[in-house]
Amino acid sequence: MNFEWRWDFTWQILPRLLEATLTTMAAAAIGYSVALLGGLIFALGQRTPSRVITFIVREIVEFIRSTPLVLQIFFIYFVGPQFGIRMSPWHAGMLALGVHYSAYLSEVYRGGLDAVPKGQWEAALALNLSTTSTYTRIILPQALPPALAGMGNYLVGILKDTPLLSVIGVAELMHTANSIGAANYRYLEPYTIVGLIFLLISLPLAGLTRLFEMWVRRKLGMK
Amino acid sequence: MSFWNFLEIYWPRLLSGTIVTIEVFLLASGLAIAIAIAAGLMRLSTNPAVRWTSLIYIEALRGTSLIVQLYWIYFVLPLFGLTLDKFNAGFIAVGMNLGAYGAELVRGAIQAVPKGQWEAAYALSMSPAKRMWRIIFPQAFVIMLPPWGNLLIELLKYSALVSLIGVTDLMFQTKQINSSTFLSVQAFGAALIIYYVLARLLLTPGLRWVETKMQRQLQRN
Amino acid sequence: MEETAGYPLVLDGPDVPMVRFVNVTKCYGSLTVLDNLNLDISEGEMVSVIGPSGSGKTTVLRMLMTLETINGGVIYVDGKPLTHMERRGELVPADARYLRMMRAKIGMCFQHFNLFPHMTALQNCMEGPVHVLGLSKVAARERAEQLLSMVGMIEKKDQHPARLSGGQQQRVAIARALAMRPKVLLFDEVTSALDPEVIGEVTNVIRKLVAEHNLTMLMVTHQMGFARDISDRVCFFFGGKIEEQGRPQALFGNPQRDRTRLFLSAIKEAG
Fold it and tell me: B3-220 belongs to which CATH class?
């Protein structure tokens, strides 16, 4: 029984795992950035005057939210080249993560936008504010605070979904742990350390997002 | 190869994969629901030991990736003497992970039942068990149904990960077909459509039906 | 929209009204809310609009503020069409840019104030001047402070709406609308959401406006006494049409139409 934890092995593999952690965090950050913008596009796309566009965007969002991320990752990675778009695993992974979480964030944005009272839109129109000003100065500042909790949850969520990128060969934490495990026939230390690293990142991250939410509320609510 | 030709040839494998996916889904859901109820109730216990145990379980499972937990259960647990075959490791991992999220839903729903209900049951001298079973839980149940609907869809989606340890579900079959034929659009496209059908056209309406039925039950009682 | 042939492209000549509704119709699906409305409002006139709910009175205001589109007819403001614009000698439905240009002449105060909650009273009043009229922050601040003084809210200029009572918020809303220097100011039941004891604050501000400014005003209200006191003219709406209109003493004192009489006596009973 190899229950025994080998500390020498642990120190040996730790540097590689820490390096992979940076890749993991970069992947989450980039994917989330894409999602922040993509989510806004999806959300606004469901508020156009054109019923056709609204319907199409809605269905696309529903489709993305109802199907597995891992499948979408495979799809983007394998289907791209067939249409002449060559993508590295990294790019395919970022795109898949970004698009998937855009769909989630769009729902959060929509909730925030819907929460802004109709009277605010009317007051902005009565003052003859431009559409851009209405959105940036009046509506979005009010839509943001209720949306922040959901946005924070998805930031933590996207971090925990980065291991899915290992299936197309992105060298993040999971992939690295797999390699180490396969090469040394020892999985106990790599997988356990990876689990702990995720725990050590995600718990403080969840706390930080909550603090950020309170800070934004304070800044916008009483600005 | 056109999409229809593709389906004509490969439908048996897609079907068998879908059946396995559904099996994993049902077993994992059952486990998740059971764990969620247990952990959710424990979270509200007055006994600190009980409360902390469930808190640690919930935070640990929610704080780490399902895929890490899956690999850990399949590859590392044997070292502790507990060897599970792929299928069991798969649905157990998914069930345990989503059960942790479900526990928070259960806890939230129970706390959302109006205080007056607790007080009324107390005034009728109901035992705590009876109070929970007959008064609180039925109401909490209706409250938690919509978010549970979303959670079960997440469960269906995450069940695809069991393919990574070799369970021959829909995801696994699709990958195999892709590896051998490189008909990526057809293979992954078919899988996307099947998952979509399962989630939006079967699961969501099914849950809505349960929700209306429970609403009616509650009003009758 | 129906044909607009035959409608003038511009109103000119002497005595051009500030606001003119010509055969204006508004439908929601099969429900006709306004039925061939014709109404003139002269410059500087204060017109009160009264009537039961569903009579179309709020719709009149909302269409003038371009919050709603019209289904028939034309509305003119300050001699030019509001809902339509000229193209090659004909009137066509106004595009967004034209609407924005015309909309600048009209301001509105709402029943529920609709102040921007994330801005102070002062910032609310500066928002339009800075971001629409292009005033410098300094000029906008000066104008805002002057208006807030006029409505008696200068001491609370740095408070957020959440800290203000309903009457205070409505006064700030009036200052905010005035900051845009509109030619026409609309009041949509501005006291209906207020506690009785603060209604006076708001009506006093409106009195002041009527006395000291030559603003054209259109007011939907349930405050009959107030309407009687300050209006130049009162319009009683019923079923999407003007049932009766006239000087307040005439309409309130000696209503000619049965429906008017019924409405006024019902209001009196309600106290």
Answer: mainly alpha
